[in-house]
C-alpha cells in the first residue's frame, strides 16, 4: 500500500553557501530533511503547504501532459533552459494542479536532480516508461527529440482510446435507452391499457395476455431485479479486479469473440509495437524497455506475455524467437522483428507494425459500428413494436365484441 505524502515548502543552503528554496512532496518533515541532505542541501525552515479547498481536487489530464511534453521539447529546442521552460509553461497554464506540479519539478531540478529523477517523484503523472525515455534522452543529449517522441506517443494513445470509447459508447447508450423505454412501457403504459381492457368483456389475445403477465411480474419483482443486477455487476467487477485468474480467464474468452476479440488483440499489439519502437529509438536497452512497455499494453494477458519476453531476452534469446512461444504475437509481428533485428532497424519495423495494427483497428471499428447499429435498431424495434402491437390487438378486435 502506498503511504500518503504531503507537500512541503522548504529553505536551505548548498555546500557553497547559496540559499535555495523549493516545494517537494514527502511523508514527513524528517524524511524530507534526510532527502535534502542526500542532495547536498543543508535544510532550514520546512513548512507543510495546505492548498485551498478549490485546488485540492485538481488534477493534470493526459491531454495536458502531452501538451507539456511538446511545449517543453519546443522550448528546449529553442535554447531555453529547463527552469526557464517550466516558468514559461506555468505562466501559460490555467490549471492550478499543473502549476503546482511544475513548481515541484523546478524545485527538485534547482536542488540538483535530473529531469528524470524529478519526474519519478510524481508517479501519478509520469509512469516508468515516460521516466525511462527522459533518462535515455538526457544521457544521449537528445532530450528535445525524445520529448517530441513522447508527446507523439501520448497523443496517439489518446486518439486510439477516444476512438474506442466513441465506437462503443454510442451502441451502449442506444441499447440502454431502448431498454429503459421498454421498461417504462411495461411498468406504466401497459397497466393503463389493462384497466381499459377489463371493461371489454371479451377474452384478450394470447400475445396481449403474455405481455400483461410480463408487466405484472416485472412490477412485482423490479426491485429484486435491480438489486440482483447491481450486485452481480459489483461482484463481477470485484472478482475481475481482485482475482488475477478470473481476470485472465475473462480476457481469454473475450479474445475468442469474432470482432471484439480481434479489436482487443490489435489494440494491445499496436500499443506494444508503438511504445517499444519509441523506447528503442530513444536509446533505452531492449530488456530494460520491456518492463514499462508491458504496462502500456493495457491488457493483462499481453502484459504477462511481454514480461515473459523480457525474461527470455535476458537469457539470450532474440526478440522474434521469444515471441513464438507465447501464442499471442502473430507471425507478421515476429517476421518484422526478425527483419529489424537482422538489419539493425528494429525501431522502424516496430513502428511499421504499429501503423498496420492502428489501421486495422480503424477498419474493425467501422465494421463493428456497421454491424451493431442495425442490429441494435432491429432489437429495439422488435421490443417496442411488440409491446405496441400487443396493446392495440384488442382494440383491433373491438368490432367483433360490439
Keywords:
402 residues, mainly alpha, Receptor-associated Protein, 3 domains, three-stranded antiparallel β-sheet, 17 helices, 3 strands, 75% helix, 6% strand, elongated
Anisotropy-based shape? elongated
Please state the CA-atom Rg, rounded to the nearest Å. Answer: 30 Å
What is the name of the CATH architecture of the largest domain?
Answer: Up-down Bundle
CATH hierarchy, class of the largest domain? Mainly Alpha
Identify the strand order in the major beta sheet.
2-1-3
Biggest β-sheet strands, sense, barrel = 3 strands, antiparallel
Mean pLDDT: 82
Number of domains: 3
Q: How far do the termini sit from each other?
A: 76 Å
CATH superfamily of the largest domain: Type II secretion system (T2SS), domain F
The CATH topology name of the largest domain reads Receptor-associated Protein
Number of helices: 17
Query: What proportion of the residues form beta strands (DSSP E)?
Result: 5-15%
Description:
- This protein has 402 residues and is mostly helical.
- The chain is built from 17 helices and 3 strands.
- It has helices at 29-38, 53-56, 62-77, 82-91, 96-110, 115-120, 128-140, 143-197, 206-242, 244-255, 258-281, 286-296, 300-314, 319-323, 331-343, 346-396, 398-401; strands at 6-14, 19-26, 41-48.
- A hairpin with a 4-residue loop joins strand 1 and strand 2.
- Helix 3 crosses helix 4, helix 8 (143-197) runs antiparallel to helix 9 (206-242) and helix 8 packs parallel to helix 16 (346-396).
- The chain is elongated, with a radius of gyration of 30 Å.
- 27% of the residues are buried.
